[in-house]
Design brief:
The chain has one domain. It contains three helices and five strands, in the order H-E-E-E-H-E-H-E. The mean pLDDT is 86.
Length: 106
């Protein structure tokens, strides 16, 4: 999360809400390990990575939904190794990503 802290502070300083996506489970091969994080601002910016680019846009959209609803989500993304090679990706596997709103301290 240290890599996303400066952006989170900047966004909060501008009054934006922030969602945090965290890889909580990896099955098979994946570009990022458990604990990898991506922060998303209500203004449409992002920092960090949960997949090295493979599912960032989908997680971004889900994070915007989490910000709108205030309800966390557990997401699952996966592809077999064979399917990955067929479409030109270097790895298959499955990741689970927990997306939660970061509320300002009260």
């Amino acid at each position: 999360m240290n890599e996303t802290l400066p952006e989170i502070a900047l966004w909060r300083g501008r009054g934006e809400r922030v969602a945090l996506a965290t890889v909580v489970k990896v099955e098979g091969s994946a570009p990022r390990p458990v604990g990898a994080k991506m922060a998303v601002s209500s203004g449409g910016e992002l920092a960090g990575s949960v997949s090295g680019g493979c599912v960032e846009s989908a997680v971004f959209e889900e994070a915007q939904d989490v910000l709108a609803s205030g309800t966390p989500k557990l997401l699952r993304y996966g592809i077999t190794d064979e399917m990955a090679w067929d479409v030109g990706l270097a790895c298959g596997g499955t990741i689970e990503v927990f997306v939660e709103p970061l509320d300002a301290p009260r």
